[in-house]
Amino acid sequence: MSTGTDQRIILGLDIGTTSVKVCLVDWTEGKVVARQTKDTQANVPSELGCEGNKQNVPKIMSAVHICVSRLPKELLRQVEIIGICGQMHGVMLWHYDTSAPWERADIESSRYDIVPTQVSNLYTWQDSRCDPDFLSSLPKPDSHLRAYSGYGCNTLFWIAKNRPEKLERFNCAGTVQDFMVAMLANLKRPVMSVQNAASWGYFNTEDHSWNSELLEGAGFPTSLLPEVIPSGDVAGTLADQWHGIPVGTPIAAALGDLQCSVLATLRNLDDAVLNISTSAQLGFVAANFQTDQVDASSPVEYFPYFDGKYLAVATALNGGNALATFIQMLQQWTLDLGFNMPQSSVWSKVLELGSQDSSESTLCVIPTLLGERHSPQQNASITNIDPGNLGLGQVFKAICRGIIENLHSMMPREMLLKANISRILGIGSALTRNPVLQSEVRQCYQLPVVFVPGGDAAWGAAMAVSRN
C-alpha cells in the first residue's frame, strides 16, 4: 500500500501491564513522528484476593482508542501497516458466534465498544492462582520452555478444573493484544504469533505447534487454542476505517512486549538489555541456541525472538513494583502519623537520601514480595539489621541492591561474559528515573552500563512489521 508521499507511516501499539503506548513511525526517516501514552487503570478485584490478578478489558481498549485518537489525523490516513504487541503470558476469553464481542459506538465514530457479556477479564502474567501443588498435577510440557503460574495455558487449566462453568460462555482465547488484532480485523477466530504462543506454555517452538494431544489427554479445552503463525506475519486487514486509517490496512499478528522492547533498544549483538519497570528482565540474543541445550536447573528462559533467533532472559517478578510497595508503605505510615505526604514527595526524598548515602551498609534486603517463578513460595526478608543501618536512605539503597542481586542470582555476570556480552543497556521507567538503582547495576555486574531512552515496545512493534 502506497502513501503517495515520501513517507512510510507505520502504527505501533503496546498494551502494557499498566499503560498503553502508541506511536507513528516514519520508516523512511527511521524515527517516531508522534506518540501517545495513557495509564489503563484496569485492575479489578479478584475473588481469590492477592492470588488472582485480573484487568478490565473494556478499560484497556478504551485507553487504546484514546491514545490513537490523539495522533495526527493526516498521518493516520497514511498508515501502511499496524504492529501490535503487549504483556506476555496473560489470557482472556471471548465469544464470537452470530455476533462479535465488539461493536461500533456509532456510525460516525471510530471507537469500538466491548460487549461486556461476551468477554472475560484479562488474567495477567502476575496471577498466582496456580500454586506449586496445582502445577505439579499438570503434565510436563513437550517444550524447552517451562510453564508457570500466570501463563495462559496453566490459567486455562485452573479454570477448567476449578471454574468449568466459566468456559461454557466462551469459544475464543488469546492475549489481550490478540484480542485487539481480532477486533480490528473482525476475525471470528484469533490468530497468535509464535512469540505469544511460547509465552503461554505447552507450545513446541521447533515444530511451531501446541502440545494438543498432551493437553487434551489432561482435560484441557484445546478448542480454545488459537491458530499460530510466524512472528511478524500478517494476521488480517482492517475491517473498517479506524481513526482515519484506511480499510484494508494490514495488521500483523500481535507480538510479545519483551521482544519488541529489546528490538527497539539493542544496538549490537554483544549488548544485553536490562529492563526494570513493573517487573525486571535481563536478556540478550543467544547466538546459535539449540533447544536441547537448556539447563533445567537454571531460571533463565529462551524465548523466540525474530529471524529464527532466541532471547536468553532472566525475569524477576520483583522490580519497580517492589520499590512502589515500599513507597506506598512509607506514605501510609506518614498518614498514620497524622501527615498527608504526596507520593511524589516521598519518592523525591528517598531518591535524594539514597543518592547521598555513601556508606557500605551491611543491611540485606531480599525484595521478593511476589516470590519468583522458579521459587513461588519465597517471601521478602530483611537481615543484618543494626542500630547504624536504619536510615531511610540506607534502607532504600538496600532495597535497590536487593532487586539487582535477585536478578544477578538468575543471570550472573559470568553468564554474560560467557555469551561475549560486553555492555548492558538499561531501560524502563523504574531504572532510568532512579540513580540509586543505576549505581547498584554498575556495582553488581562490573560491566559498562548505558542508560538509554530505548525500550519503547510500541516502536519495536513498528520496527518488527516494517519489513512486510
Describe the protein's architecture and organization:
With 468 residues, the protein is an alpha+beta fold. The chain is built from 16 helices and 26 strands. Strand 19 and strand 20 form a beta hairpin. The mean pLDDT is 93.
Counted beta strands: 26
Unreliable spans: none
- Spatial order of the strands forming the largest sheet: 21-22-20-19-25-26
Average pLDDT level: 93
Helices, strands, pairings?
Elements: E1 9-15, E2 19-26, E3 31-39, E4 43-44, E5 54-55, H1 57-69, H2 73-76, E6 79-86, E7 92-94, E8 102-104, E9 112-114, E10 122-123, H3 132-136, H4 152-162, H5 164-167, E11 172-174, H6 176-185, E12 191-193, H7 194-200, E13 203-204, E14 209-210, H8 212-217, E15 227-229, E16 234-237, E17 250-252, E18 255-256, H9 257-265, E19 271-276, E20 280-286, E21 301-304, E22 310-316, H10 320-336, H11 343-356, E23 364-366, E24 381-383, H12 392-410, H13 413-418, E25 423-427, H14 429-432, H15 435-445, E26 449-451, H16 457-465
Parallel strand pairs: 1-6, 6-18, 12-15, 19-25, 25-26
Antiparallel strand pairs: 1-2, 2-3, 4-5, 5-10, 7-11, 8-9, 13-14, 16-17, 19-20, 20-22, 21-22, 23-24
Helix pairs in contact: 9-16, 11-12, 12-15
Which tags fit this structure?
468 residues, alpha+beta, six-stranded mixed sheet, 16 helices, 26 strands, 23% strand, globular
Question: How would you summarize this macromolecular structure in one to three sentences?
Answer:
By secondary structure, this protein is an alpha+beta fold.
